[in-house]
Amino acid sequence: MKILLIDDHGMFSESLKVTLEKDESIEKVDILDDINKVEYKILNNEYDIILMDINIKKITGNKDGLTITKELLEKDNTLKIVMLTGFDMPGYEIEAQKIGAKGFICKDEYTEILIKKLKKVYNGENVFRKETTYMDELTEREKEILILYSSGLSRKEVAKECHISVSSLAVTLNRIYEKLDVRNYQEMVNKALELGYIKPSFF
Fold it and tell me: How many C-beta neighbours within 10 Å does residue 127 have?
Protein backbone atom coordinates (compact mmCIF):
# COMPACT_ATOMS: atom_id res chain seq x y z
CA MET A 1 0.00 0.00 0.00
CA LYS A 2 1.07 3.54 -0.77
CA ILE A 3 -0.30 5.99 1.77
CA LEU A 4 -0.48 9.79 1.85
CA LEU A 5 -0.75 11.15 5.40
CA ILE A 6 -2.24 14.63 5.77
CA ASP A 7 -1.66 15.86 9.31
CA ASP A 8 -0.29 19.05 10.85
CA HIS A 9 1.33 17.41 13.90
CA GLY A 10 4.92 16.81 12.83
CA MET A 11 6.06 14.49 15.61
CA PHE A 12 2.94 12.32 15.36
CA SER A 13 3.20 12.13 11.57
CA GLU A 14 6.87 11.15 11.56
CA SER A 15 6.31 8.54 14.26
CA LEU A 16 3.30 7.05 12.45
CA LYS A 17 5.21 6.98 9.16
CA VAL A 18 8.09 5.02 10.70
CA THR A 19 5.72 2.60 12.43
CA LEU A 20 3.54 1.95 9.38
CA GLU A 21 6.48 1.43 7.03
CA LYS A 22 7.71 -1.43 9.23
CA ASP A 23 4.73 -3.46 8.03
CA GLU A 24 5.50 -5.46 4.89
CA SER A 25 2.12 -4.60 3.35
CA ILE A 26 2.92 -0.88 3.31
CA GLU A 27 5.31 0.22 0.59
CA LYS A 28 5.62 3.86 1.63
CA VAL A 29 4.01 6.64 3.64
CA ASP A 30 4.38 10.21 2.39
CA ILE A 31 3.56 13.12 4.70
CA LEU A 32 1.83 16.19 3.27
CA ASP A 33 2.36 19.33 5.35
CA ASP A 34 1.35 21.88 2.70
CA ILE A 35 -2.33 21.62 1.75
CA ASN A 36 -1.74 23.73 -1.37
CA LYS A 37 0.09 20.73 -2.84
CA VAL A 38 -2.66 18.23 -2.10
CA GLU A 39 -4.19 18.05 -5.59
CA TYR A 40 -0.74 17.93 -7.23
CA LYS A 41 0.41 15.14 -4.94
CA ILE A 42 -2.74 13.09 -5.49
CA LEU A 43 -2.88 13.61 -9.23
CA ASN A 44 0.81 12.94 -9.78
CA ASN A 45 1.30 10.07 -7.37
CA GLU A 46 -0.67 6.86 -7.17
CA TYR A 47 -1.70 6.58 -3.55
CA ASP A 48 -3.88 3.71 -2.47
CA ILE A 49 -5.14 5.44 0.68
CA ILE A 50 -5.18 9.01 1.95
CA LEU A 51 -5.13 9.31 5.75
CA MET A 52 -6.70 12.67 6.64
CA ASP A 53 -6.69 14.33 10.04
CA ILE A 54 -9.73 16.49 10.85
CA ASN A 55 -8.04 19.33 12.72
CA ILE A 56 -5.46 20.51 10.16
CA LYS A 57 -5.94 24.26 10.27
CA LYS A 58 -2.25 24.80 10.97
CA ILE A 59 -1.63 23.94 7.33
CA THR A 60 -4.95 25.00 5.76
CA GLY A 61 -5.64 28.27 7.52
CA ASN A 62 -9.40 27.88 7.65
CA LYS A 63 -10.49 24.46 6.39
CA ASP A 64 -10.77 21.25 8.37
CA GLY A 65 -10.08 17.76 7.07
CA LEU A 66 -13.73 16.96 6.45
CA THR A 67 -14.06 20.00 4.17
CA ILE A 68 -10.88 19.10 2.28
CA THR A 69 -12.09 15.51 1.92
CA LYS A 70 -15.44 16.63 0.53
CA GLU A 71 -13.74 18.88 -2.02
CA LEU A 72 -11.37 16.12 -3.13
CA LEU A 73 -14.14 13.54 -3.48
CA GLU A 74 -16.26 15.94 -5.51
CA LYS A 75 -13.39 15.96 -8.03
CA ASP A 76 -12.59 12.24 -7.83
CA ASN A 77 -15.00 9.96 -5.98
CA THR A 78 -12.72 6.95 -6.45
CA LEU A 79 -10.25 8.25 -3.85
CA LYS A 80 -9.97 6.13 -0.73
CA ILE A 81 -9.84 8.70 2.06
CA VAL A 82 -9.86 7.64 5.70
CA MET A 83 -10.35 10.12 8.51
CA LEU A 84 -7.68 9.68 11.22
CA THR A 85 -8.59 11.82 14.21
CA GLY A 86 -8.28 12.38 17.92
CA PHE A 87 -11.92 13.50 18.04
CA ASP A 88 -14.03 10.40 18.63
CA MET A 89 -17.35 12.13 17.96
CA PRO A 90 -20.32 10.38 16.30
CA GLY A 91 -21.28 13.51 14.37
CA TYR A 92 -17.90 13.66 12.66
CA GLU A 93 -18.09 9.98 11.77
CA ILE A 94 -21.56 10.42 10.29
CA GLU A 95 -20.34 13.43 8.29
CA ALA A 96 -17.39 11.40 7.01
CA GLN A 97 -19.77 8.69 5.80
CA LYS A 98 -22.04 11.23 4.12
CA ILE A 99 -19.29 12.86 2.11
CA GLY A 100 -17.92 9.53 0.89
CA ALA A 101 -14.89 8.81 3.07
CA LYS A 102 -14.00 5.14 3.39
CA GLY A 103 -13.39 5.08 7.10
CA PHE A 104 -13.09 6.81 10.45
CA ILE A 105 -10.24 5.77 12.72
CA CYS A 106 -9.27 7.27 16.08
CA LYS A 107 -5.65 8.09 16.80
CA ASP A 108 -5.71 6.07 20.01
CA GLU A 109 -6.09 2.80 18.07
CA TYR A 110 -3.24 0.31 18.37
CA THR A 111 -1.03 0.27 15.28
CA GLU A 112 -1.89 -3.32 14.39
CA ILE A 113 -5.61 -2.47 14.46
CA LEU A 114 -4.99 0.61 12.30
CA ILE A 115 -3.10 -1.49 9.74
CA LYS A 116 -5.87 -4.12 9.68
CA LYS A 117 -8.42 -1.41 8.97
CA LEU A 118 -6.25 0.11 6.24
CA LYS A 119 -5.99 -3.31 4.60
CA LYS A 120 -9.80 -3.54 4.64
CA VAL A 121 -10.08 -0.16 2.94
CA TYR A 122 -7.44 -1.19 0.41
CA ASN A 123 -9.53 -4.27 -0.38
CA GLY A 124 -12.67 -2.21 -0.95
CA GLU A 125 -14.32 -2.29 2.47
CA ASN A 126 -15.43 0.65 4.60
CA VAL A 127 -14.34 0.92 8.23
CA PHE A 128 -17.04 2.66 10.22
CA ARG A 129 -18.71 1.63 13.43
CA LYS A 130 -22.25 0.29 13.11
CA GLU A 131 -23.87 2.47 15.76
CA THR A 132 -23.88 5.72 13.79
CA THR A 133 -27.62 6.13 13.28
CA TYR A 134 -28.58 7.26 16.75
CA MET A 135 -31.26 9.94 16.49
CA ASP A 136 -33.33 12.08 14.21
CA GLU A 137 -30.95 14.10 12.06
CA LEU A 138 -31.13 17.87 12.38
CA THR A 139 -32.21 19.71 9.25
CA GLU A 140 -29.83 22.20 7.63
CA ARG A 141 -31.95 25.05 9.05
CA GLU A 142 -31.83 23.54 12.52
CA LYS A 143 -28.05 23.12 12.24
CA GLU A 144 -27.72 26.78 11.21
CA ILE A 145 -29.76 27.93 14.20
CA LEU A 146 -27.89 25.57 16.54
CA ILE A 147 -24.53 26.96 15.43
CA LEU A 148 -25.65 30.58 15.73
CA TYR A 149 -27.28 30.08 19.12
CA SER A 150 -24.30 28.14 20.44
CA SER A 151 -21.96 30.95 19.40
CA GLY A 152 -23.33 33.14 22.18
CA LEU A 153 -25.91 35.16 20.27
CA SER A 154 -29.16 35.96 22.04
CA ARG A 155 -32.45 34.54 20.77
CA LYS A 156 -33.35 37.96 19.39
CA GLU A 157 -30.02 38.18 17.53
CA VAL A 158 -30.38 34.66 16.12
CA ALA A 159 -33.93 35.41 14.96
CA LYS A 160 -32.74 38.56 13.22
CA GLU A 161 -29.84 36.72 11.57
CA CYS A 162 -32.22 34.01 10.30
CA HIS A 163 -34.95 36.47 9.28
CA ILE A 164 -37.58 34.79 11.45
CA SER A 165 -39.62 35.85 14.46
CA VAL A 166 -38.52 35.11 18.02
CA SER A 167 -41.60 32.89 18.47
CA SER A 168 -40.70 30.87 15.34
CA LEU A 169 -37.17 30.53 16.66
CA ALA A 170 -38.50 29.23 19.98
CA VAL A 171 -40.44 26.51 18.15
CA THR A 172 -37.31 25.46 16.25
CA LEU A 173 -35.18 25.46 19.40
CA ASN A 174 -37.72 23.25 21.16
CA ARG A 175 -37.50 20.84 18.22
CA ILE A 176 -33.69 20.87 18.43
CA TYR A 177 -33.84 20.20 22.19
CA GLU A 178 -36.18 17.28 21.55
CA LYS A 179 -33.99 15.76 18.83
CA LEU A 180 -30.84 16.12 20.92
CA ASP A 181 -32.66 14.92 24.05
CA VAL A 182 -31.53 17.91 26.13
CA ARG A 183 -33.31 20.27 28.51
CA ASN A 184 -31.35 23.52 28.43
CA TYR A 185 -28.79 25.64 26.60
CA GLN A 186 -25.69 24.17 28.26
CA GLU A 187 -26.82 20.59 27.65
CA MET A 188 -27.51 21.52 24.04
CA VAL A 189 -24.01 22.94 23.55
CA ASN A 190 -22.36 19.93 25.20
CA LYS A 191 -24.40 17.45 23.14
CA ALA A 192 -23.79 19.40 19.92
CA LEU A 193 -20.03 19.29 20.60
CA GLU A 194 -20.17 15.59 21.38
CA LEU A 195 -22.05 14.82 18.17
CA GLY A 196 -19.97 17.12 16.00
CA TYR A 197 -22.70 19.60 15.05
CA ILE A 198 -20.46 22.36 16.36
CA LYS A 199 -16.69 22.23 16.57
CA PRO A 200 -14.37 22.89 19.50
CA SER A 201 -13.10 26.46 19.73
CA PHE A 202 -9.57 25.41 18.74
CA PHE A 203 -10.78 24.18 15.32
Answer: 18
- Read off the pTM: 0.70
Nearest in space to 191 (alpha carbons), one of 177, 172, 203:
177
pLDDT beneath 50: ranges in the chain: 132-134, 202-203
pLDDT tens sequence across 133-187: 445 678 889 999 999 998 889 999 999 999 999 999 999 999 999 888 899 999 8
Domains of the chain as residue ranges with CATH: 2-122 (3.40.50.2300), 140-195 (1.10.10.10)
